[in-house]
């Protein structure tokens, strides 16, 4: 199986690339955001627990997010692996993912891919996306810059986790979409 952690700051094209990688390698993208929305909307036990923390203005503990992920992995069979999007965000989550994959699937993360894009390019892309989509979080340059800073704060420690395992690669996220996909695929194929 090919299990990939996909990193990319807001506006890096991560969602677009994940779709191409899903098709090419028969993978299932697991997005933390999608998992949260499903559990909250459907009032699952984990969704109610997460909501109780959010209602108090607290971050949802790693354990709750990890349990959502574990449940999600059980739902999807018949794929050649997974693309983890938005998880792990901390070293604790990365270590939990290692354990879950080993215990539940007898697998491991093969590679952590990070799309690299200059901050000014990201800001430009997001402002343009904000005009097209009407998303408030993509319309304010100050908010965009804060999101980018927050992204790097959260992912730096996780990148170090995978670098220490020899499972980390950076790919230029600027250029033609097909070229970026080819570069990501070449990195994945080194581990297949």
Features:
single chain; 192 residues; alpha/beta; Rossmann fold
What would your notes on this structure say?
- The chain is of the alpha/beta class.
- It has one domain: P-loop containing nucleotide triphosphate hydrolases (Rossmann fold).
- The protein is 59% helix and 14% strand.
- The protein contains 8 helices and 5 strands; from the N terminus they run E-H-E-H-H-H-E-H-E-H-H-E-H.
- It is globular.
- The chain starts with a strand and ends with a helix.
DSSP summary: helix tally:
8
What is the annotated CATH architecture?
3-Layer(aba) Sandwich
Q: What proportion of the residues form beta strands (DSSP E)?
A: 5-15%
Could you spell the SSE succession in H and E letters? EHEHHHEHEHHEH
Q: Give the overall shape, derived from the CA principal axes.
A: globular
Characterize the main sheet.
5 strands, parallel
First-last Cα distance: 8 Å
Look at the helices and sheets and give the structural class.
alpha/beta
């Amino acid at each position: 199986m090919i299990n990939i952690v996909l990193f990319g700051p807001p506006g890096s094209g991560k969602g677009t690339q994940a779709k191409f990688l899903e098709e090419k390698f028969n993978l299932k993208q697991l997005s933390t955001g999608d998992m949260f929305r499903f559990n909250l909307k459907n009032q699952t036990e984990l969704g109610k627990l997460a909501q109780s923390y959010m209602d108090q203005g607290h971050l949802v503990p790693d354990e709750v997010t990890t349990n959502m992920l574990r449940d999600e992995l059980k739902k999807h069979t018949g794929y050649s692996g997974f693309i983890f999007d938005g998880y792990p965000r901390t070293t604790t989550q990365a270590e939990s993912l290692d354990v879950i994959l080993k215990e539940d699937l007898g697998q491991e993360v093969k590679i952590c891919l990070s799309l690299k894009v200059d901050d000014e390019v990201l800001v430009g892309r997001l402002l343009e996306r904000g005009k097209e989509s009407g998303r408030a979080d993509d319309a304010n340059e100050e908010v965009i810059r804060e999101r980018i800073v927050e992204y790097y704060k959260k992912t730096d420690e996780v990148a170090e986790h995978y670098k220490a395992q020899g499972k980390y690669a950076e790919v230029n996220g600027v250029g033609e979409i097909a070229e970026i996909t080819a570069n990501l695929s070449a990195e994945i194929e080194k581990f297949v």
